[in-house]
C-alpha cells in the first residue's frame, strides 16, 4: 500500500550512490555539486527504506541492478554485458585533457551553468516539491536547449508546479506551458503518467534509486543519474547526454567508439575514478555548448587541440 512519509532533514551533502538498495557500493563526492544541491542527503536514506509499492519495486530493482552493476566490476556478471576492461586501462592523456577542460570551463558561463536542472526548481518550495520540480525539468530538458527548458519551467512554476497541480491540469494547458520543448506532446503524456505514479506510490515525492527512476514513463538513465545527484545529493553514475557522448568519443575516452550514450556511460565508468563521476556531466556539457560544438567545434581555441585525436579530422 502506498504510504507517504515526510523524511527527516539532515545536513546537506553529496555521496556516491548505493546504485540500488539491494546492491550498495561506492564512496566519494560529486565535485562542485554541494552548492547546487538543495535537498538533504538524509532524506535519501530515510526514503530509501520506505516501500510504497514493495513487490513491484523490489522486482524492478533486482532486474536493473545487473545492468548498472556489471560495468564497474563488482563481481556480478551482467547478462549480455560486455567484458570488463583490462585492469589499469585508461585513455592516453586524459588527465591533461581533463585539466584543460576545467581551465576552459573555469568561468562557468555556459548555459548549463545558469539554466541546468540545479537552477530550475523553486528553492523556497518544500523538499519533495523541489525534487519533483528537478525531475520535471530533467524530463523537459531532453532534446531541448537549456534556455527553452528554463522558460518552460518558469511558466510551470508560475502556475504552481506540484504533483497535484499537474494532475489537475488538462493536457492542452500543460502542453501550452511547456511548448516549445522538444517532443512536448509526448512529454505532456509522460509528465502526467509519472506524476500519477508519484502520487500513488511515492506520496508525491520522487523515488530515491536509479532503478525506480528509470521505471517512470519518460525518464531515462541520464535523467535518473542527474535526479539522484541534484534531488537526492547522491552520485549514482555518470550522466551521459549527447555532449558527454560526443566529447568522450572525440577524446577517445572510450576504448572503442561507442554508438549510444548508455554505451558511453558504461565505457567511462570502467576507468574514470568514481570521485570524478559527479563532476563530469556539467563539465563536458558546458564544454560542448561553448567549445566542442556538435558541428564545427572550435578546435583553434581549444586547449586540447594538440592532445585531441579528433582535432585533425574536424
Ligand atoms: S580539439 Fe576540437 S574536437 Fe578536440 S576536444 Fe577540442 S574542440 Fe573538441
How would you characterize this protein structure?
- The chain is mainly α and 314 residues long.
- Among the domains are: 94-107 and 239-312, Endonuclease Iii, domain 2; 121-231, Hypothetical protein, domain 2 (Endonuclease III, domain 1, Orthogonal Bundle), CATH 1.10.340.30.
- It has 14 helices and two strands; from the N terminus they run βαααααααααααβααα.
- The protein has helices spanning 41-48, 54-70, 94-104, 111-115, 127-141, 146-158, 163-168, 171-178, 184-201, 210-214, 221-232, 242-250, 261-271, 277-290, and strands at residues 15-16, 234-235.
- α8 packs across α9 (184-201).
- The protein is elongated, with a radius of gyration of 19 Å.
- The model is unreliable at 1-38 and 40-81 (pLDDT under 50).
CATH class of the domain at 121-231: Mainly Alpha
How many strand segments?
2
In CATH terms, what is the fold-level topology of the domain at 121-231?
Endonuclease III, domain 1
Shape: elongated
Judged by helices, strands and strand pairing, the structural class is: mainly alpha
| Secondary structure tally, helices | 14
Q: What's the alpha carbon Rg, rounded to whole Å?
A: 19 Å
> Which residues form runs of ≥5 with pLDDT under 50?
1-38, 40-81
Helicity level: 40-55%
Which architecture of the domain at 121-231 does the CATH hierarchy give at level 2?
Orthogonal Bundle
Strand share of the residues?
under 5%
Order of helices and strands: EHHHHHHHHHHHEHHH
Largest sheet: 2 strands, parallel
- The H-level CATH homologous superfamily of the domain at 121-231, spelled out, is Hypothetical protein, domain 2
The averaged pLDDT comes out at 80
* Ends distance: 56 Å
Chemical compounds bound to the protein: iron/sulfur cluster
Strand order of the largest sheet: 1-2
Subunit structure: Interacts with YBX1. Interacts with ERCC5/XPG; the interaction stimulates NTHL1 activity and NTHL1 binding to its DNA substrate.
GO molecular function: 4 iron, 4 sulfur cluster binding; class I DNA-(apurinic or apyrimidinic site) endonuclease activity; DNA binding; metal ion binding; oxidized pyrimidine nucleobase lesion DNA N-glycosylase activity
Family: Belongs to the Nth/MutY family.
Catalytic activity: 2'-deoxyribonucleotide-(2'-deoxyribose 5'-phosphate)-2'-deoxyribonucleotide-DNA = a 3'-end 2'-deoxyribonucleotide-(2,3-dehydro-2,3-deoxyribose 5'-phosphate)-DNA + a 5'-end 5'-phospho-2'-deoxyribonucleoside-DNA + H(+)
